[in-house]
Amino acid sequence: MPTYKIRGIDVDFPYEAYDSQIVYMDKVLQSLQQKCNALLESPTGTGKTLCLLCATLAWRKSLGSFITGASLKISDKLDGKTELFTLSPSEESGRSTIVYTSRTHSQIRQVIRELKRTSYRPKMIVLGSREQLCIHDQVKKLRGKTQTNACRVLCRRRGKLQCEHFSKVSGYLKSNPHLGDEPVDIEDLVSIGTRFGPCPYYLSKELHKVVDIVFAPYNYLIDRGYRKSLQLSWNNSILIFDEAHNLESICADAASFDLPSWLLTACISEAETCIDLSIKRRDKSNDKSHNPDDFAILKALLLKLEKRISEVPIGSKEFGFTKPGAYIYELLADLNITYKTASKLRDTIAEASTLIEEHNQQKSSDTICRLDSIGEILDNIFRDGRTDHAKYYRVHVQEVESWAANGSKGKVVSRTLSWWCFNPGIAMEEFPKLGVGSIILTSGTLSPMESFAEELKLNFPFRLENPHVITPSQIWAGVVPVGPSGRTFNSSYRTRDSLEYKQELGNAIVNLARIVPDGLLVFFPSYYLLDQSIGCWKSSSNDNSISIWERICKHKKPVIEPRESSLFASSIKDYISNLKDTSTSGAVFFAVCRGKVSEGLDFADHAGRAVVVTGLPFATSTDPKVRLKREYLDKQPRAQGETLKALTGDEWYNQQASRAVNQAVGRVIRHRHDYGAIIFCDERFAQPHRQSQVSRWIQPHIKCFSRFGEVVFTLTRFFRDGKTQCLTKLSLLEPKKEENPEEMSSSGQHLDKFYLEKLVSPRIAPVAPDCSLKASSSLDTKKRWTSFLGEIVPANRSSLASDNCKIVGCESSRGTCNTVLHGRKTILSQERSMVDLTENSQPAEKSTDMLIARCSSKKRRFISGDYDLKQHIGNSLEHSSGGREQQCKDDITSQSKSLEFNRPEGNLPADCAPFTVSGDETQGSAFLAQVREKLSAAEYIDFVGYMKALKTKAMKIGEILQCISRLFSGPERLPLLRRFKDYIPAKYHSLYEQYTAEKN
């Protein structure tokens, strides 16, 4: 493993680092050493996450050794008041906790997977919600506040009535202090709880107090309630916000609230319910624990608030009613709600919430208590007893018409009281006060960066806009100002509704659908323009000829992004299905900037060969929140000598549109060996100031075209250029040891799997200099380790035959197995990234003896089924042992779950040579079954990779044994660690024992 000396710190990196990765790690270390904040942009595929982890953990290691279970002091007094784990005073004083956050748990799962690639093993834990971690038979079925209250009630009980999983936490941690020494994810914690009994939620909550690094979603730091519940040592701690491109809006939303009339009505109804319930309890069982008078006061206050909001004078529906943020205190003071009385009111709301939850549990209802939202609003308004933060707010009351619930009364008018925060930095300002050492914000798309520092009101001395690791021939970026007929593209308000504009745009899409192979993404500025354009394209022209929509469908099957979130999953599945359809040359996804498609999906390789941006996605200027935000920024004082440049309303408005564009175009070119086109179909993108706000790694490649014909010509040449295609020639396995896979784990994630937050990473097809292949993914009905690779055929359907790229396939009634012969070398397909050993497996002259078997498959494509050890190794054995035929066995199927081997040895497969084994012929198969049971799917694939590396001598045996010992470390895997020695030649026993001694 290479080691780099950066700013005096040795950084272990799993691969040979690129220059851009060295620069990125240098910025991270500079920020940590000088205790300053950093704003770092690095495109997807440049190894951002891996660099961030290695640099941060190397810095942390330079301060002292990582915490381990052996270094923890375990208390014998487990009464709930004494800390279970403690550190020595010297360790506690010098400790710097790293808090690594990202948007979703799916992204955190990817980060932990990257952590396993490194040599660093800090004490770690991942935090999650009860919905993800609870294993109690009844509580895990609940949601939201209902689940939280039910959990707390069960945990507060004593004796047999207490939650059995909660009661086992301290005992398990006391006997397993090494939990977290090796990377664990949420699924691992749930598995521990299921097998051994302790509550995963409280395991993580207890362990997070004494770790080196904590992984959590954003809201654990941004939300005040979550943050206060964390028992972390904030002094000199490091806060990392990965995928931080949405951080400013998340911070602002977390500090704001909206109170619609329907919610206020529901709260009044719940207060009335509490009055009735408390009276019934008093009458039936003389239960006086709940005073109905308190709930009556609560109801009266809510009724007065409803009346007060209804009396607010609204001059026009467009502008509503707006006041400075401090007006909220005047409004509540009229109801006698002040900082002093708000405390009593919050207690009453908490009591009412408990009463309603108990009532809902008796009725077996999981209805959410709406009164909790009132308590959260009061906490937000009266936090810390201060009112000075109100200057960052605006009070707004807007009136809307909607249909009555029963439909009989026609339209009704409802009002919403809003308290909007226009300073996102209000959520971040507490971190410097807590003594946090450094705050690092990083993402693949942060440009334009200036607004981040200005919006968050933090000083970021260290900033970086990293280039991509791709070559110029892998990207086509151009501004297309005119269409096929020469009409100008401009999606502004003045021209977007004209028939000529929509028809010209449609004709351009027809041409692009014909040129671009596989997946094409088309982003519109808004749903309105998307609907209007498609509606126009579907209508026939005056001469009743074929419509634009039908012409698009001739080349690519279309999918339209739905407005409803519930329909999004089906649209992704439709897109995946259309990509696999061989009757057309791919699929086209019509979506909107700021929509779900533009925000988190990974359209790598065939899934997104080009992205079209049809205009600048400006927010609706008449939207009250947008209008008030611009006014707020324009009215901010411009004091001289300020470190941060003041942001004007217009600058913010333009930068928000540019950031949405950057997010959309970031869907393609997801890794080093990917390639694609970025097409800006709006003349405004030709303006220098517009291009300056595009991600910096794209800017050097942007060309402005004066004629649409030039676009067609250059794009066609780009996609048909054999040299460009050859840039995807890396093997289906992980790159060779000296190569860097960047963040290949995200390079080919199945889109339909993304919806389920179960992302898989298919590899890219190898392409010979004169042979083009296309990758198209599919989801197996039973397994997730599936990828389909076929030919890349541009819309003109040109023939792409080649003698240097041959497909070997064999079909049976039960399954399919295929091998790609590239340059007369066998390349195996595999979903996970593994070391590419094909170049080192045997001399080139020996491979000339390979024969290509005849196949019943008529299509020239490569299919890799479910990852199965037997399939992976069985297919390779025929060549590695010098055989002259590719054997096809009916018992090898993509859905096979068997781990038995139909070979005389009956033990570890030949890929595990030079291992030896003696004894029963099923011994090896039984051991592999244990390995697969104990390891995760990703770890199991890594294990197979080490076996193959050992066979081909691509890695030193010492390195492999060290990796295996690390893979089998942990109390649950100790039997594997010991048994594996039986399969090692005697001369390597002492070497293996050196590594295992550290794990026992």
From TrEMBL:
InterPro entries registered for this protein in UniProt: ATP-dep_Helicase_C, DinG/Rad3-like, DNA/RNA_helicase_DEAH_CS, Helic_SF1/SF2_ATP-bd_DinG/Rad3, Helicase-like_DEXD_c2, Helicase_ATP-bd, P-loop_NTPase, RAD3-like_helicase_DEAD
Keyword Cell inner membrane: no
Cellular component terms per the entry's GO annotation: nucleus
Main location: nucleus
SUPFAM superfamilies linked to this entry: P-loop containing nucleoside triphosphate hydrolases
Region annotation (Disordered) ranges: 874-903
Domain of life: Eukaryota
Domain called Helicase ATP-binding: residue spans: 7-293, 29-286
Signal sequence region: none
Protein name: Regulator of telomere elongation helicase 1 homolog
